[in-house]
């Protein structure tokens, strides 16, 4: 079983960590510990399901976890409840959009959201440019007309300005990865990356990925590898294969991959859910997408030098 299959196995075995709980609708709830992990599970499993064949273990595991996440929302009813409580918050629509793309829909939520996205309040709520791209893509995925042009928002992002490559750091890295995800609908539409941005990323992504390997920043490494596989023409495999080998070594026998190999003081990072869930999700996503973009890579199989699907 490859890196993606092992990661999915760990996620399946730790699905109880992806629960909303009774506090999901509380006004002081931490969405980063409730809605965010659940939405990420839904999105990453949708991506794996899109890129694998029905009947394969990765496809069936991803489908099962996607259904688990939908049940946690009570088939979308909790998303409607939280959107009513926080009408201008984008995260309920962002989470719902992943389910809608998978064909899991709640008509009551969509009726409410349709009225909401048509308001001046929704259209004029201020977002950072990368978050605005997320909102626009979520509107599109759910079936609404995006309230602003994607191209204009893109050019206001760090990546859209084609910055000096030496200005890359952790925050910029996570921002640029999500700009590409929202632009390409999580790797499904590589042609939507403008030529100048694609050329820029093909040159500099391998350098930034090598830096992540050197610092054992496994979560960001996986995110950048997913970006590489989302370009119209991904970088040559030989420029990223060493990173995949390093990730395979960093993944433990259970399939978990920690966000960082070492803590800020050089200490080992505990292999607990909060330190592993996101990087393990992104590892499954990046590996599946990479294998699917490489000629001759079978769904659910493994490409040369161990790049897993």
TrEMBL record:
Residues 6-288 form the DUF6895 domain. InterPro entries: DUF6895. It holds the Pfam family DUF6895. This is DUF6895 domain-containing protein. It comes from Streptomyces ficellus. The lineage of its organism: Bacteria, Bacillati, Actinomycetota, Actinomycetes, Kitasatosporales.
